[in-house]
Design a protein that fits this description.
With 91 residues, the chain is an alpha+beta fold. It contains four helices and four strands. A two-stranded antiparallel sheet has the order 1-2. Strands 3-4 form a two-stranded antiparallel ribbon. The protein starts with 8 loop residues before the first helix and ends with a helix. The relative contact order is 0.09.
């Protein structure tokens, strides 16, 4: 997983007050649309169409596995035939 989000104290407080999880913020950071504002800041959000596309992709993602090599390149992808126990392949 990516390194932690770089959040200001203000952002952490507002996320807690508004019930916004770090996972939700990460998803918006990864897939969101940027809309620039005055002063050099920008908004990030997920349009409804993108949310629908993500839901559809997540519905089909169960039991899909990727194999990555030493250089972080994806070597192959596959559908799992059996459940992989975390302890089998833990580094």
């Amino acid at each position: 997983m990516k390194p932690k989000l770089h959040l200001t104290d203000h952002a952490k407080k507002r996320m807690q007050q508004r019930g916004i999880s770090e996972l939700q913020a990460r998803i918006i950071e990864e897939f969101g649309i940027e809309q620039y504002q005055k002063g050099g800041s920008y908004l990030m959000y997920l349009p409804a169409k993108m949310i629908a596309d993500l839901r559809q992709a997540l519905d089909k993602i169960e039991r899909i596995t990727m194999v990555k090599g030493d250089e972080e390149k994806i070597i192959t992808t596959m559908h799992q035939i059996r459940k992989i126990r975390a302890s089998e392949y833990a580094a």
